[in-house]
Design brief:
The chain is an alpha+beta fold and about 290 residues long. It contains 6 helices and 10 strands, in the order αβββααβαββαββαββ. It has helices at about 5, 60-100, 110-140, 150-165, 185-200, 255-265; strands spanning about 20-30, 30-45, 50-60, 145-150, 170, 180, 205-215, 220-225, 270-275, 280-285. The strands form 3 sheets. A 5-stranded mixed β-sheet has the order 5-7-8-10-9. It is elongated and about 100 Å long. The model is unreliable at about 245-250 (pLDDT under 50). One of its GO terms (molecular function) is kinase activity.
């Protein structure tokens, strides 16, 4: 570190006896910002000679941890807002329809029962995503390890297919048993993409096709649906935190989780057009060599 750059912030502090105590300052160390804490105390010897005791500590790592914790707190606050808003609305809707069915469920009231079931399913999905986001935020900087793609992807296709039997979710072909550098949260990436493809579909029977493309260094997983599609101008913002949570039919929480996890795995996620209609969500992740 340049001595002049380091000593510059200390200039005048030693002579200022009116404001003893801790002082924080930062120094530019060749493009890297380093943080320090200077604690000053007055001292005097038996002859009345006065001075100051200076204790200098580097607090760069502490500052970095504080920034991470603050980010996590902010993210949890957003999560809490989404949870309270969306779950409350779904449960209120379910309660309203349940009131209409207090006496019996006649055939012409079957639509009400279907609506209750749909609202309950969406509420469950929200709580799953909220749980996953919380785990991700609390484990920021966690370690990754090799995870088999076929095991995770095939399990999530089967689980979401069972939960949404009104649609069709299929693998285009068998998944190769390649490994991806990820963690236990990888399943959340696929679950949220599959759920999103079904829930935001405007057809009577949604059709979703999952495909994989194995490269030398990466693996691409595509989730194609036959829904309304996503306009190009919305494709980047749709993954952002809180972009759709309070103003649309969905929370946007699942896609925010997808982006967060893919970033953690040093991967990419983007959206393409499907033919003849719909959207294709593509995830590219580094494979273990």
């Amino acid at each position: 570190m340049d001595a002049v750059a380091f000593l510059g912030p200390l200039s005048g502090l030693q002579e200022d006896e009116n404001e003893p105590g801790p002082t924080e300052f930062e120094v530019d160390d060749g493009g890297r910002t380093r943080h320090f804490d200077l604690d000053r105390s007055r001292i005097a010897d038996t002859h009345g000679q006065r001075g100051q005791l200076l204790v200098l500590r580097e607090i760069t790592e502490r500052k970095a941890r504080e920034e991470v914790l603050q980010t996590q707190r902010d993210d949890l606050e957003v999560l809490n807002t989404m949870m309270r808003h969306d779950i409350r609305n779904d449960l209120q809707l379910a309660t309203a329809y349940a009131d209409l069915l207090e006496d019996d469920v006649a055939e012409d009231n079957q639509a009400y029962l279907d609506q209750i079931q749909s609202a309950a399913t969406e509420a469950i999905d929200i709580t799953k995503s909220a749980r996953d986001v919380t785990e991700v935020l609390l484990s920021a900087g966690g370690e990754t390890n090799p995870v088999r793609l076929d095991t995770v992807l095939e399990a999530e296709v089967a689980e979401v297919s069972e939960a949404y039997d009104s649609g069709t979710i299929e693998l285009r072909e068998a998944v190769d048993p390649v490994q991806i550098e990820a963690d236990d949260m990888l399943e959340s990436v696929f679950r949220n993409l599959l759920t999103n493809a079904v829930e935001h579909n405007d057809t009577d029977r949604p059709e979703v096709e999952v495909a994989t493309e194995i490269g030398a260094d990466t693996v691409r997983i595509s989730v194609a649906d036959d829904g309304p599609g996503i306009p190009p101008e919305e494709r980047e913002s749709i993954f952002a935190k809180g972009e759709t949570g309070l103003e649309s039919d969905g929370t946007g929480l699942g896609l925010y989780l997808v982006q967060t996890l893919v970033d953690r795995y040093d991967g990419r996620v983007w959206i393409e057009d499907n033919e003849p209609r719909g959207a294709v969500f593509v995830v590219e992740l580094p494979r273990v060599s």
